[in-house]
């Protein structure tokens, strides 16, 4: 698929490894300025470094998506650095522990909910609050069990309508 993001700003959470890193590099190759968010500082810095090495623009923000203040801080950093958020890939997530239901660990369950549900929701809600008046936000939410939320008045669209 050939997409042109020249002049756009893409914000990606969980961008320090795996799918988030691959997507960040793809956005940057397609012309976007990227905001790399991860709680893993080494991974996040490495992703931003690869983008710059390949001639792109990247800004890394260390943040834990389960902490509302850190979510607000990464959204603010994106807007302060590049002036907009055109695309939001709400990707940070964890798999948790695999176990039979009867043997499931409550702390592990709470952690999955905190990252995959609360972290995704917070990112979406904060981006919407900060960006609705500025521009359209294209958002994709990856962690399992997530829906796409669109508050009234916000033109939040899914990546399927990007072409
Ligand atoms: N890999 C798969 O087969 C698969 C399948 C379905 C869904 N997913 C989802 O895709 C997403 C990425 O998967 P992946 O395989 O690339 O995972 P990964 O573990 O390679 O990368 C996840 C990244 O998210 C970061 N992260 C985790 N918790 C965080 C937090 N609280 N705050 C900030 N950053 C945090 C990690 O540091 C890591 O860099 C996840 O949401 C996962 O649930 C993956």
Protein architecture, described:
- The protein has about 160 residues and is α/β, with parallel strands linked by helices.
- The chain has one domain (about 10-160): Rossmann fold (3-Layer(aba) Sandwich).
- It is built from four helices and six strands, in the order βαβαβαβαββ.
- A six-stranded parallel beta sheet has the order 3-2-1-4-5-6, sandwiched between helices.
- Helix 1 (about 20-30) runs parallel beside helix 2 and helix 3 (about 70-80) packs parallel to helix 4 (about 105-130).
- Mean pLDDT is about 85; it is low at about 145-150 and about 160-163.
- Nicotinamide-adenine-dinucleotide binds near residues 16, 17, 38 and 40.
- Nicotinamide-adenine-dinucleotide binds near residues 19, 64, 92, 95 and 142.
Order of helices and strands: EHEHEHEHEE
Structure annotation, total helices: 4
Strand content: 15-25%
CATH architect. name: 3-Layer(aba) Sandwich
Task: Map the helices and strands.
Layout: E1 9-13, H1 18-29, E2 33-38, H2 41-53, E3 58-62, H3 68-82, E4 87-90, H4 106-131, E5 137-141, E6 156-157
Parallel strand pairs: 1-2, 1-4, 2-3, 4-5, 5-6
Bound molecules: nicotinamide-adenine-dinucleotide.
What's the short version?
40% of the residues lie in helices and 17% in strands. By secondary structure, the protein is an alpha/beta fold. It has a single domain (9-161), classed as Rossmann fold, CATH 3.40.50.720.
Highlighted features:
163 residues, alpha/beta, Rossmann fold, six-stranded parallel β-sheet, disordered C terminus, binds nicotinamide-adenine-dinucleotide
